[in-house]
Design a protein that fits this description.
The complex is a heterodimer of chains A (154) and B (787).
Chain A (H helix, E strand, L loop, with lengths): L1 E7 L2 E7 L5 H8 L18 E4 L2 E4 L12 E3 L12 H8 L9 H14 L5 H7 L11 H14 L1
Chain B lengths: L18 H4 L16 E7 L5 E7 L1 H4 L4 E6 H5 L23 E2 L5 E7 L2 H10 L1 E6 L6 H4 L15 E9 L12 H9 L2 E12 L8 E7 L4 E6 L4 H12 L6 E4 L15 H13 L3 E4 L2 H7 L3 E12 L5 E13 L9 H7 L9 E10 L13 H19 L3 H8 L8 E2 L5 E2 L4 H12 L1 H13 L3 E10 L16 E7 L5 E5 L8 H13 L6 E4 L17 H28 L6 E4 L2 E4 L2 E7 H9 L13 E6 L8 E10 L6 E11 L6 H20 L31 E4 L18 H16 L14 H9 L4
Parallel strand pairs in B: 1-12, 10-11, 14-15, 20-21, 27-28
Antiparallel strand pairs in B: 1-5, 2-4, 2-6, 3-5, 7-15, 8-13, 9-10, 9-12, 13-14, 16-17, 18-26, 19-20, 19-25, 22-23, 23-24, 26-27
Classes of the chains: A alpha+beta (154), B alpha+beta (787).
Chain lengths: 154, 787
């Protein structure tokens, strides 16, 4: 067992973990932050995306021990109190989700996308979300949601 | 008189009420469920496609830290009966965990119960199974010969369902077949086009894999089972049945469900095993499917071969159609496996007035994962075969594919229309949908653009397809579970409305659309209506969400229950207001006399009176809660037209989808925003099938597409911006006039894209290309002559 100390959604969290424990399982099972989902086991689908030190990352591809000392933001920590993040608003406004399973990861990937490029074209949004699968929406309303958030920030 | 302050919501693009929790990570999916003392299950699965289990060594697994129990199939069989199916077809014994012979890679052979997820998986990996392997068969047309292997001893030549005829001249019991009309049609034809087509095997791939938590409580002798299911009430029935419990003792909960697409209709072996082990061990138990496991253990869809022949006059009137179907159902019959391909037969009439049709269906066992319902479930297959046949006919005749369709449509004045296949189409105006799609796409201009591109040497093609599907499933005669839906509407003491629905959603937004309906019905704010679903402890009865039935059947049940409550509430209000109930209006949160809005009572005041009814009006019981079952008299038959434009890269064979124009007619729409989302999702899955998705097996039965590394589902950049529109032809089958839309997108998209690809490559002499349209296949068509 190894001890890790990770700042999650602004709070210092510690835990004893097996070295092989994935960050996503640390978040879900030890910290009860179940908003981060697992949709595959080969790092393709992006359902587990969180922010590690401010950048989107697939938490199924990182061991908890690798995140030791990092700052992690999950979907539960994205809103500012009762004020939704512009991307959360955008997804709601534009019907950017159906079953909601991919949504936390999709939103957190889009956070980094918009930080890197505050006014992306539709093509850039589609390319930028390449690492996040959605089986429900056909992506069009997700693109609209990201555009909505980008317009709101501009 | 002033207009109501509260706008009518039905027909409006209302934002979803589900979303605030889901966008904040506050939804609870099955794997999020935690119970004190929860243990984890993991399954050891066969890694051979066909073989007899010689031995299973569980000693190493049992000795591992955290492992509490290991059960082999033989041990499970001591207390768990074989899995039931939901169709009347003969079916081989199917154990949740194999006892003797394994018949596909992924079939469970043992199960581990351990303290943690990782420990359970480690232990499953430590189980050693020794097999006498047998030859495997993966091609259904080979399997039909009975060689090289017979998968189930009582099913000669691997025939799950021996040839079943349907259509013109076939008696209702299928026993007598008169081919006279079909033979005459083909004898009289100027032209016949014939083609073998494959509608390939797909993985449904909901983003949330399956999962189940079972909690048997010994003190109460009750079982609670959480499952990622589309139909908790059906799950309850089967879990009770196989555990020897009453339905009153079992509570099934579908919490947030992360997509289903038909694959979560089934009651799976893992659900039976986890439930029975929870009861046997007296522990709460969880199993969560891995994605790689899902590719093996969750049902697949489609996988049907169609031999189609279309007979026509030289001016394009279709005289007759033959469709010989061979369905590869995999290794076992699951809940509805055997019934799905019969829907392909049912819809062979498509949108056309065809005088003579003969279909036959043979279902074949192979050493693959079982098939069952996947979004569209039999109807996309029918649409694909017939529409590709029509496209080939148009090409043969040198006729515009739109014009060929128009010459053969069932006219709008012929509804209800009894088809050759035994369906009665409720309503339709196919020419209207076609005309709208042609206008929206700019068909003539697209043809000009295509021709101009070709003149530059580019490989651009256009495709068009019509579809009609059977939805709103369905009268009880057509479903073994019953085809009704149930709802209960309660006006609470404070005037809030709680309503339950048996239509258990998994992304469809019923909490919003159903609330829109009730808010309008009672003239109250949307926020005062709560829709409850997905819990048999809360929702008295139900069937579930599949076959595009939520709105048409579940929505109607809700409307009927709401109507009953409204009538009763009007009686209470009439007593309070000393008015006639027929003079009352429900508007802006008040119930008042028509024309005198000030002389009314608030909705909450009338509700409070109904629960403390002093005095009690004559003939009324206290309270405001009514339920309704709705049994539809027929299915609904939504339809539409899809048009696509594609370009094939001459150097790489890559196919790009440039445009997709869809006109869908689902009858009356409650929430067009949600409807668009449903169509988008269906289109994406249809486009996936046409272009990039295919479950593949090696000749030895080994899956070649066992993860997202090998099985492609569409990503954002694979898809264009869809161009949607709707025509509205209400159904007379239900009072809402709503037909259903969940599956529509999967129907028109595949044939219109394949036809566009064939059009793009027509210069190379190709008349048909089987899906999926992977670059290598197209490159070979382009370069085959030169290679």
């Amino acid at each position: 067992m190894a001890q890790v100390s990770i700042t999650v959604n602004g709070k210092q969290r510690t835990g004893d973990v097996e070295p092989r424990l994935l960050l996503v399982h640390f978040l879900r099972e030890q910290l009860d932050l179940t908003g981060t989902h697992v949709g595959c086991d080969t790092s393709q689908c992006g359902a587990c995306t969180v922010l590690v030190d401010g950048r989107s990352a697939k938490s199924c591809t990182i061991f908890a021990v690798q995140a030791d000392g990092s700052e992690v933001t999950t979907i539960e920590g994205l809103a500012d109190g009762d004020n939704l993040h512009p991307l959360q608003d955008g997804f709601w406004e534009e019907h950017g989700l159906q079953c909601g399973y991919c949504t936390p990861g999709m939103i957190l990937s889009a956070v980094t996308l918009l930080e890197d490029n505050p006014s992306p074209s539709e093509e850039q949004i589609r390319e930028g979300l390449d690492g996040n699968f959605c089986r429900c929406t056909g992506y069009q309303h997700i693109v609209n949601a990201v555009q909505n958030a980008a317009a709101g920030r501009a | 008189m002033a207009a109501p302050v509260l706008p009518k919501l039905v027909g409006q693009r209302v934002k979803r009420r589900e979303d605030p929790r889901l966008i904040q990570g506050l939804g609870t999916y099955v794997d999020d469920v935690k119970i004190v003392g929860l243990r984890h299950a993991a399954f050891k699965r066969s890694d051979v496609a066909h073989g007899r289990i010689r031995s299973i060594d569980t000693a190493a697994a049992e000795a591992m830290d955290g492992v509490e129990a290991v059960f082999t199939g033989a041990q499970i069989a001591e207390f768990l009966d074989p899995m039931p199916i939901g169709t009347p077809f003969p079916s081989p014994e199917h154990r949740a965990v194999a006892t003797d012979v394994v018949r596909y890679v992924g079939e469970p052979v043992a199960v581990v119960v351990a303290a943690g997820r990782y420990a359970a998986r480690d232990a499953a990996d430590a189980i050693v199974v020794d097999y006498d392997t047998r030859p495997a068969v993966v091609d259904p047309e080979v399997a039909m010969t009975g060689h090289p292997t017979v998968i189930h001893a009582d099913f000669d030549n691997n025939l799950a369902v021996p040839l079943v005829p349907s259509g013109t001249g076939v008696s209702p019991d299928g026993k007598t077949v008169d081919d006279t009309a079909v033979d005459r049609a083909f004898a009289d034809a100027d032209v016949v086009v014939s083609q073998r087509m494959v509608n390939q095997r797909l993985a449904p791939t909901a983003m949330e894999p399956r999962g189940v938590v079972a909690h048997y409580e010994r003190g109460k002798d009750t079982m609670t089972i959480w499952s990622s299911t589309q139909n908790p009430h059906i799950l309850r029935t089967f879990i009770a049945l196989l555990n020897g419990m009453g339905e009153d003792q079992v509570r099934a909960i579908a919490p947030e469900v992360g997509g289903g697409f038909g694959a979560k209709i089934n009651i799976y072996g893992e659900e039976y095993v986890v439930a029975s082990l929870s009861r046997r061990l007296g522990l709460p138990l969880k199993w969560t499917e891995d994605r790689s496991e899902a590719f093996l253990a969750t049902i697949h869809g489609r996988d049907i071969i169609g031999y189609i022949d279309v007979a026509a006059t030289r001016d394009g009137k279709v005289l007759g159609l033959k469709l010989r179907l061979i369905a590869d159902v995999g290794a076992y019959n699951m809940l509805l496996t055997a019934a799905i391909p019969t829907l392909t037969m049912l819809m062979a009439n498509a949108t056309y007035d065809i005088p003579a049709i003969r279909t036959t269906l043979t279902e074949v066992f192979t050493n693959k994962t079982p098939t069952d319902a996947y979004r569209g479930a039999g109807r996309p297959e029918a649409t694909y075969f017939v529409e590709r046949g029509m496209d080939m006919l148009a090409r043969r005749l040198g006729m515009d594919p739109a014009e060929l369709r128009r010459r053969n449509f069932i006219p709008a004045d012929r509804f209800p229309y009894a088809t050759q296949m035994g369906a009665v189409y409720d309503s339709g105006d196919y020419a209207k949908a076609l005309d709208r799609a042609l206008a929206n796409a700019g068909w003539r201009e697209l043809q000009r653009q295509r021709d101009a591109a070709r003149a530059e040497g580019r490989l651009v093609g256009l495709g068009l397809a019509m579809y009609v599907e059977v939805c709103g499933l369905g009268p009880s005669a057509s479903l073994p579970t019953g085809g009704w839906e149930h709802a209960q509407v309660t006006i609470e003491r404070d005037g809030r409305i709680s309503a339950t629905t048996g239509a258990s959603p998994h992304g469809q937004g019923n909490e919003t659309t159903f609330a829109q309906m009730l808010a309008d019905q009672f003239g109250v704010p949307l926020e005062h209506v709560r829709i409850l679903h997905g819990d048999t402890g809360v929702v008295k009865q139900g069937i579930g969400t599949f076959g595009s039935r939520s709105q048409a059947v579940g929505g109607t049940a809700l409307h009927l229950a709401g109507t009953k409550v409204r009538e009763k509430m009007a009686k209470f209000a009439a007593a309070l207001l000393e008015a006639h109930e027929e003079d009352l209006v429900f508007e802006d949160g008040r119930i008042s006399v028509q024309g005198a809005p000030d002389a009314g009572k608030t909705f909450a005041e009338v509700a409070a009176y109904a629960y403390v009814p002093v005095p009690l009006p004559a003939g009324l019981d206290p309270g405001l809660s009514e339920e309704a079952f709705f049994e539809p008299a027929n299915n609904t038959y939504p339809f539409g037209c899809h048009i696509s434009m594609v370009e094939v890269d001459r150097d790489t064979g890559e196919l790009a989808l440039l445009r997709l124009v869809a006109v869908d007619d689902a009858g009356n729409l409650i929430n067009p925003l949600i409807v668009e989302g449903q169509i988008h999702g269906g289109l994406a899955q249809g486009i996936g099938q046409a272009m990039i998705e295919e479950v593949r097996y090696g000749a030895d039965g080994q899956p070649l597409t066992g993860s997202f590394m090998d099985y492609a589902i569409p990503r954002a950049a694979d898809l264009p911006r869809f161009e949607l529109d709707a025509t509205v032809t209400p159904t007379p089958v239900n009072p809402l006039g709503a037909k259903g839309v969940g599956e529509a997108g999967t129907l028109g998209s595949t044939p219109c894209i394949v036809s566009a690809a064939v059009d793009a490559l027509s210069g190379f002499g190709v008349t048909h290309i089987d899906m999926m349209l992977r670059p290598e296949k197209l490159w070979r068509i382009i370069h085959g002559g030169q290679a």
